[in-house]
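B., you asked whether I could sanity-check this one before it goes into the benchmark set. Here's the sequence:
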Amino acid sequence: MILLLLAQYLSNYDHQENLESETIEDDSGVYSDRSNEENETIEYPLILKIQALGEERPLSLGTITIGAYPENTIVLDQNTVSGYHAEITGNGSMWQLKDLGSTNGTRVNKTVISQPIEIKEGDIIRIGPFDIDVCLS
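And here's what the prediction gave me:
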């Protein structure tokens, strides 16, 4: 639903002139950037689907954190999730997952990761009891 609203929002801007720079965001991060200089829209195609919460989170450029503390970009409030459990860093075309020294570890496709790993469509990240599907929009 968020993506549908975002697509409608972006399509409305295609008909306006004299755009300087526009950023569309919500509390999960920046989704897209519109620059009049190049007259192109950059979309960030990676989406995290958190099954247990019924949420989908589009990823923006930069770094997001995942953990139990409310300061994280994605909060997974459960006692087997560390306060600052993991982070995902992306540049729009490549995304990397890093465990932040969590107590119970971070898994990608059932394998515990010990160093940063590139994530891609179809991967399943497991943090505590949460399965997070990595998808392209």
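One thing to flag: The CA atoms of residues 82 and 133 lie 20 Å apart. Otherwise nothing jumped out at me.
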